[in-house]
Amino acid sequence: LAKTTQPISMDSYEGQEVNITCSHNNIATNDYITWYQQFPSQGPRFIIQGYKTKVTNEVASLFIPADRKSSTLSLPRVSLSDTAVYYCLVGDGWAAGNKLTFGGGTRVLVKP
Amino acid sequence: NAGVTQTPKFRILKIGQSMTLQCTQDMNHNYMYWYRQDPGMGLKLIYYSVGAGITDKGEVPNGYNVSRSTTEDFPLRLELAAPSQTSVYFCASSYSLGVVDTEAFFGQGTRLTVV
């Protein structure tokens, strides 16, 4: 399993863009990068997944450089309700046995 | 679709008691997981299952047991509860295509206190 490293916490203000970078230096060829969001007292929720370049959905964008050794989750114009913990996961269904291993995540606090 | 349903939502156990945390999903997912989350920490995988009749250990399986007799249900059994098992427990499910980890859906959690 590729090991991931992400900042423990980040503060931001309403209306700003938040970028969270995840390092995964030993990512394997078949690995995908997936981000989950967890609000207090709730289970994690899938945000976005990608393999290379850029992926965008209604919630976030995911930027993956050519070497794939890192990825950046971008949350545009955050609001107070985006305060949550964000987890970066790297894995391949077969190789990882689909174990969905979570690290410590990044705690994002959005201030008024 | 109800998604992933966990029961109970809260439970207080005395040391040495046993209980079963229930988890049911109605999405016909083949993969199911149990996690525990201690205050301020990330999720740790206890057990997972890739299909009915097949289970395997995660990072922290000691003190727990699971079974998967049907696709829908994946109960977690605590035998001889200990204070160290005080935590929030999450059940999740996903449909594996093999090549990629598809979106996993989580239940609302069971908050367990052992006193």
Explain briefly what this protein structure is.
Chain A has 112 residues and is mainly beta. Chain A is built from no helices and 9 strands.
Report the order of strands and helices of chain A: EEEEEEEEE
The CATH architecture of chain A = Sandwich
Q: In CATH's first tier, which class of chain A applies?
A: Mainly Beta
Helix coverage percent of chain B: under 10%
Domain count of chain A: the total is: 1
- Quote the distance from N terminus to C terminus of chain B: 36 Å
Briefly note the CATH topology name of chain B: Immunoglobulin-like
Superfamily at the CATH H level of chain A?
Immunoglobulins
Quaternary status of these chains?
Answer: heterodimer
First-to-last CA distance of chain A: 38 Å
Largest sheet of chain B: 7 strands, mixed
Instruction: Write down the CATH class of chain B.
Output: Mainly Beta
What is the H/E string of chain B? Answer: EEEEEEEEEEE
What is the name of the CATH superfamily of chain B? Answer: Immunoglobulins
CATH arch. level architecture of chain B: Sandwich
Share of helix of chain A, binned:
under 10%
Overall geometric form of chain B: globular
Can you describe this structure?
- The complex is a heterodimer of chains A (112) and B (115).
- Chain A has strands at residues 9-13, 18-23, 32-38, 45-50, 53-56, 61-64, 70-75, 84-91, 106-111.
- Chain A has 112 residues and is mainly β.
- Chain A has one domain (9-111): Sandwich (Immunoglobulin-like), CATH 2.60.40.10.
- In chain A, strand 5 and strand 6 form a beta hairpin.
- Chain A is globular, with a radius of gyration of 13 Å.
- Chain A starts with 8 loop residues before the first strand and ends with a strand.
- Chain B is mostly beta strands and 115 residues long.
- Chain B has one domain (4-109): Immunoglobulins (Immunoglobulin-like).
- In chain B, the strands form 2 sheets. In chain B, strands 2, 4, 5, 6, 9, 10 and 11 form a 7-stranded mixed β-sheet that branches. Chain B has a 4-stranded antiparallel β-sheet with strand order 1-3-8-7, with no helix packed on it.
- Chain B is globular.
- The mean pLDDT of chain B is 92.
- The chains are: A mainly beta (112), B mainly beta (115).
- Chains A and B meet through strand 3, strand 4 and strand 8 of A and strand 4, strand 5, strand 9 and strand 10 of B.
